[in-house]
Design goal:
The protein is 61% helix and 7% strand. By secondary structure, it is of the alpha+beta class.
Length: 236
């Protein structure tokens, strides 16, 4: 096989970027990493070149061709390097469709609601909290029905990687925000899955250190508060 060129445009602290990084590592694919600074602007010329539509990370560049959006990239990685021992998506068409359903449910519903429950204030936070609580209950019920260690069964798969925001990031972010939503008392199976997620060897080796991630999101939250205060001052 001829030598392949694989580049990843990502950002430290981004759960979406991490999904792609860990999938490449699970597949044993060597790649060159380019880090985008999420705290500063403007965006790099490399990012604008390879993702001119959304101008967001992550972006995978394979032999000069770019692929954007983390879920799309995960499927691409699984299909292109399908000769590797690790398989992300199930082989059965129905199981594969179900995995895509849950991945989309997490990305389109759970992640935004959880994020809002930590970033919003007042009544908006209360509403987001209730929404996130109901969505997490759906995932709790799914784990109860499966009676397995992971969403994909007994091994880590596509849905588990997609659930990384719940598996690790939200624990840090809710601590920064001073909220308690995902707890063992409310969601015992989901919290047990989080422990399994965090202790899965290749995940454990590559998760960002909790202290650094805490500082990263604390800085982002403080930056938003200062921006809001500055905006209010201009209205006086």
């Amino acid at each position: 096989m001829c030598e392949e060129e694989v580049k990843l445009l990502g950002a430290w602290g981004s759960p979406f970027s991490w999904r792609v990084e860990v999938a490449l590592k699970m597949k044993g694919v060597e790649y060159e990493y380019f880090d985008e600074d999420l705290m500063n602007r403007p965006k790099s010329s490399l990012l604008l070149e390879y993702n001119p539509v959304h101008k967001k990370i992550p972006v995978l560049v394979h032999n000069g061709k770019s692929i954007a959006e983390s879920l799309v990239i995960l499927e691409y990685i699984d299909e292109i390097w399908n000769d590797r021992p690790v398989i992300l998506l199930p082989q059965d068409p129905r199981d594969r469709a179900i995995a895509r359903f849950w991945a989309k449910f997490i990305d389109d519903n759970c992640v935004p609601a959880l994020w809002r429950s930590c970033r919003r204030e007042g009544i908006e936070r209360e509403n987001a909290f209730e929404e996130a609580y109901a969505l997490l209950n759906v995932l709790e019920a799914e784990l109860k029905d499966k009676q397995k260690r992971f969403f994909g069964g007994d091994t880590i798969g596509f849905v588990d990687i997609t659930g990384n925001f719940i598996g690790y990031w939200i624990g840090v972010i809710q601590e920064v925000a001073g909220v308690r939503l995902l707890t063992p008392e409310k969601f015992p199976l989901l919290c047990k899955w989080c422990c399994e997620f965090q202790n899965f060897p290749i995940f454990k080796e590559n998760l960002p250190p909790r202290e650094q991630l805490f500082a990263f999101f604390k800085a982002r939250f403080e930056r938003k508060r200062k921006t809001l205060r500055g905006g209010l001052m201009t209205l006086r």
